[in-house]
Amino acid sequence: MKRVSFLIVLLLLLTSCSAGKSKSDTDKKQYVIGFSQISAESSWRERNTESVLDAGKKADYKILYKNANQSQAEQIKDVRSFIASRVDLIILTPIVETGWKHVLEEAVAADIPVVINDRLISEEDSHLYQTFVGPNVPIQGIQTADFLKKKFKNVPAPINIVEIQGSKDASPAISRHAGLLEGIKDDTRFQMIASVHGDFMLSKGREAIKNVAKSHDLRQVDVIYCHNDDMTDGVVSYLEETDIKPGKDIIICSVDGQQSAINLLKAGKINCVIECDPNMGEMLFEVVTAVLEGKDVPKENFTTGRIFSEFSELNKIEERGY
Ligand code: GYE
Q1: Signal sequence span per UniProt (predicted)?
Q2: CA 120, 126, 132, 137 torsion-angle sign
Q3: Could you say which of 34, 199, 264, 299 would form a disulfide bridge with 82 (CB–CB 3.0 to 4.6 Å)?
Q4: What phi and psi, each to the nearest 5 degrees, are found at residue 72?
Q5: What is the pLDDT of residue 39?
Q6: Residue 119 DSSP symbol
C-alpha cells in the first residue's frame, strides 16, 4: 500500500513538471486583437498585412483579421463586429482620412482602445484613438522634391510635373501631394501640370497615365511623380509602348521601395524611389502591448525610410522582400 501511494505521488509530480508551464503561465490571459485592414491593393499592402499578422502571432495575441476590400463602409462594419465581440484592442488601417468619428466613439464607449496602423485619420478625431504607428508621409514628398532639385540643377524653367496620386482622400495621397508641393514651393521652375488618381494600383496607374496622354503631350512632361511603386510599374509599362523612354525622356519618381521599383531603378527606367517600410508589425505590437499594460505611449510612432535614387550605390540595396 505504502509503495502504491509513493507511486501515485511520483506520478502527480511528474505530470505537473511535464506540462512545462507554471500556473501563472497557463492563467495568463491571451488578448484578442481585431485588425481591420484595407485590402490587398498593392504588394506593399500584402507585406504590411503579413508583417502585422506575423508579429501579432509572435507576441502571442489572438488576431481577428478582416480585409475590407477597399470599402470604408465594409471597414466600419468590421470595426463594429470587433466591438460586438468585445475584443481587447482594435488595430485600424483607415482607408481614408475622414468618416471614422461615429464608429470610433462606439469603441471609446465600449472601452476598447484603438491603435491606428499605417494611414492617419483627420486631426479632429485624433482624441478617439490611442496612438499611430506608420510612416511619416509628408517627408516623402519633400524628399522627392529634394531629389528633383538636385536632378534638375541648372535646368531652366519650366519643369513640368505630372502626378499620379494614390486613392482619393487617403492620408498618404493627401500628404504625398502636399509634401511635394511644400518641397518645390521655393523653386518656381517646377509646375504641376496634371494630377490624377491611380488608387495605388498597377492597372489604375497605367490607365491614369494613358488618360493624361489624351489631354497632354507627354513629350512636354519632364517628371512623373507616382505615389506608389505599383502605379509606377503601370506607368512604365505604358511608356514602354510609346517612343518615350522612361527614366531618360521623363524622370520618374516613386514611393515604397518594393523590389519591382528597385529593379526599374537599376535598369535606369526610373530615377528615384522613396522607401516606405511596410514591415511595421513589430513596432506596432510593442505599442499595442504598452497600451494594454496602461503605459503612456507617444501619439505618433514613425517608421523610417531611405532614399534610393540614381545618385545612390544601387548594388548595396538588399533584397526587399516585398
Ligand atoms: O504606399 C501603398 C499602399 O498607405 C503608405 O498604401 C500606404 C500606401 C503605400 O497601397 O503602396
Answers
A1: 1-19
A2: positive
A3: 34
A4: -65, -40
A5: 95
A6: S
Longest distance between any two alpha carbons in the chain, whole Å: 103
Q: In whole angstroms, give the CA distance from residue 149 to residue 146.
A: 5
- Residue of 163, 165, 215 whose CA lies nearest to 190: 163
CB–CB of 31/292 below 8 Å?
yes
pLDDT, tens digit, 9 for 90 and up, residues 255-282: 999 999 999 999 999 999 999 999 999 9
Superfamily of domain 32-134+279-302, CATH level 4: Response regulator (3.40.50.2300)
3-state secondary structure of 292: helix
Could you tell me the three cell numbers for 168?
A: 482619393
Atom nearest to 170 CA in ligand 1: 4
For the chain, residues classed under CATH 3.40.50.2300 are 32-134+279-302, 137-277+308-316
Closest atom, ligand 1, to C-alpha of 227 = 1
| Centroid of ligand 1 to alpha carbon of 172 (angstroms) | 7
Contact between 316 and 309 under an 8 Å Cβ cutoff? The reply is no
